[in-house]
Request: fold
Amino acid sequence: MAGNDAVVNDEASSQKLLQAASEGDVGTLIRLFYVGVDLEICSLNPDEKDLRALHLASWAGHTQVVRMILDRNADRESVAQGRRAVHWAAVGGHVQVLQVLRDRGCNLSALTADGSTVLHLAADYGNLEAVTWLVGEGLDPSVKNTENFTAGELAKAAGHAKIYHYLRITSCVARLARPSSTGAGGSSTQASREVLRAASEGDQTTLARLVGTGASLEVTSQQPGEEGLRPLHLAAWGGYDQMVWMILDQNVDREAVAKGRQVVHWAAVGGHVQVLQVLRDRGCNLTALTADGSTILHLAADYGNLEAVKWLVGEGLDPSVKNQAGCTAKDLAQLAKNSDVVNFLRDKQQLITYKNYTTVKCLGEGSFGEVFLVKDNTAHLVLKVIKLGGLARSLKKVAEQELDLLRDIQHSNIVAYKGGGVEGSCLYLLLEYCDGGDLAERIKQQKERSRSFMECQILAWTLKISSALQYLHQRAILHRDLKPHNIFLTTCNDSVKLGDFGLARVMEGEIYLPRTTVGTPAYMSPEVANGLPYDGKADMWSLGCCLYELATLERGYPYVQVSVPKHYSEGFQGLVTSLLNHDPESRPSASLLVTSTLPALGMSP
Reply:
């Protein structure tokens, strides 16, 4: 804390806390944590009476704030208006918040004061995505509350027809008896026609009823234009993602071919991204070819489905691939006069062929840029593309300065610059590819195995990261977003390399100023969080947060007390504590760590 251990609960601070939690104001929340505000205070507002910060953040869907509050050991099972945090998240329909609460040990099966489950609330408030997720988590749609209503009945009363039908089908499918009197090939002609019609029209209720009586889902249509198509093809073509999911649950042949096309191709013809996502998640092959050698990207482009084209490129489909007729996806779009698709794919082809590298997959995409894994005949590299056309003139200058900066940086523990420049409206950066992933993923793996990192391993990494920071700080360069996600690993010698220290502020449209508040809140120093001037010691605080996380396997916000597990040496505990000193002047510099502190712990440069 800022000089004392008392809990702050004055009315002004309390109101700021509740407002920050409700609005997702991370910066204000961090400052309030720093002065020791009480997280258990309750709102007095009429619509929010008795709700605590955790309830408000869960209700509003502020996932990061929920994590922060839980990290401060707030009471996760506290009740307000008869509901816990999981219930308020369900009312808001926020799946990511529900996932966080589940992962942090909150009870998804907890009941409200009227005996309702989280599924009841999600259904009653019309939150379909939350409903489907909760059913997938094992919540039973047949459970009734104290008023004898199921979740589906509440959805029906509230006018949420889609949720009502989904829950009705889910309940029906769960009770399905396997076919007995009629086998896969023995359904009547009338039943087959009804199955195909239901699939074509998205009539889930009828389809569930027919499957329950043993009707086959492997029947084929004889209708003109649909010859040979099965229910799965028709549902995918029509864009009925929930029905596609339901049919796949019946173990149908997902690779069945009709008119030379598999189910993924029919979804691409229809341009249905949600169906394509379902098919991908259920193991269908997005790279399957049609009878004429076309990919699903060819079909989506040919039929003018821009959103599907964008999604497929993001999934790694290569626009430069040609079918048997020698046409790329762009060629087909051009022939069909789908100009928006043509323009999009033209930009992608220019990007993908930059410096004769071939795209392996898209690693990420933001407002002003994209990141790709690319390769040539000898190596894999990372290609970062900044779209200068979306930046203001001042930010274009910053982007060019960043390029000059990267050219001059050479250090064994910093991701190496391999080339780049400005072409047309884009800035291209080729960077070293670290095949071991990042430190955040390694921490996650250790946590899943319930295994702590060895102190010698943490110290070895710390020495290399400190050496990289020393190099940067000596050149007046601040990383400003040091965190495990930006520390990359290589498999050849288990080395670490610091990355993403300059590009982030260009891609986010930020201009460097001594008081600019940038970075990730979990690793943000007190001076940055409070809008004060800062220097390289802000990076050292972030390094302390990384060491704290390596030692505890938890993302920490150690603003009050640093508690490193006792099986680590006193020297290591002292190192972490010194880095997390609230006074920047009292924190060790990177140079001090490299030349004195770490050698004293047995780590020499």
User: Anything to note?
Assistant: Residues 439-600 form a domain with the Transferase(Phosphotransferase); domain 1 fold (CATH 1.10.510.10). The first strand starts at residue 358 and ends at 365.
